[in-house]
Amino acid sequence: MSPRLTVLIPVRNEAGNIAPLVAEIEAALTGVVEFEILYVNDGSTDGTVEEILALAGTRPHLRLLTLDANAGKAEALRAGARAARGALITLMDGDGQNDPAYVPRLLAAHDAAGAPVLVMAQRLGRKDTAFKRWQSRLANGVRKRMLGDATRDAGCGFALLPRDVFLALPQFDGLHRFLPALVKRERLGVVFVDVRDRPRQAGVSKYGFFDRLWVGIDDMLGVMWLIRRRKRVPGAREMTGVSPVPPPAPPGAGA
Predict the structure, then answer these.
(1) Is the Cβ–Cβ distance between 89 and 166 less than 8 Å?
(2) Buried b / exposed e along 214-245 (16+ C-beta atoms within 10 A)
(3) Average pLDDT, the chain
């Protein structure tokens, strides 16, 4: 049977973070929902692939997709979403800062909505340095003013949404930073859930200030254009041929 939920994790050089995160996901979701864990290797040069394969040998719910070359987080997410078997996908970073214990809460928020929605985590108690938090506040403030998407933590990569909704969104580098604005563009709902942040256990962050703001400004202008150009899509229904009503029989017919 296909799982209902795919936990989709793009990784690049996350050796040391794989086994602890897999164990936490299993502990959080076993008995709660049918799930799979799909890692997308985005050009790792350390022992990331070997660690995933060693665990996958005894876990049929653990899969590994490897990109031919480093392509960036957005492309890794897109490739993973295409390969996912679950109708719902949870996007999660591979560094262990997103706590899998919150995934059932994200799932419950989606189900309570009664309709396809994006459930977006917002971090409390950030474990970054003061300078990095300042960077994020600046980037979030610029983005919020430009897009008006009510998100206070666009840098959080922890979210849950239907797979088909994700694949229907405009695809571009940096897509993952603008999920609330793009989902609202499709006239779908966005629900926010507060989560506690955790410190990275191993490795270093792959994203810096320019990813958060200056490169992102170009993307924000593109998202603003997409929102303005979004047209109302009319509903469609299939029609079938209807047999004509036979004409009335002439007087005396059948007598």
Answers:
(1) yes
(2) eebeebbeebeebbeeeeeeeeeeeeeeeeee
(3) 82
Q: Which residue in the block uniquely carries the two structure tokens 């999920």?
A: 179
Q: Between the CA of residue 147 and those of 31, 58, 177, 179, what are the distances in Å?
A: 39, 45, 12, 11
Q: Tokens 């666009």 appear where?
A: 154
Q: 41, 64 in Cβ contact below 8 A? A: yes
No. of helices (H) and no. of strands (E), the chain:
9, 7
Contact 35, 3 (CB under 8 A): yes
Query: For 65-77, what is each residue's pLDDT tens digit?
Result: 999 999 888 899 9
Distances (CA, A) of 150 to 95, 120, 140, 190: 26, 11, 10, 10
pTM for the predicted model, two decimal places: 0.75
Q: How far is CA 244 from CA 150, 241, 254, in A?
A: 55, 9, 21
- Tokens in use for 132? 């990095």
- Alpha-carbon distance of 212 to 132, in angstroms, equals 10
CB-based contacts of 225, cutoff 8 Å, min separation 6 = none
Nearest to 10 by CA among 124, 154, 159, 169: 159
CA angle 210, 213, 216 (to 5 degrees): 95
Higher pLDDT pick, 178 / 86: 86
Other C-beta atoms lying within 10 Å of the C-beta of residue 40: 26
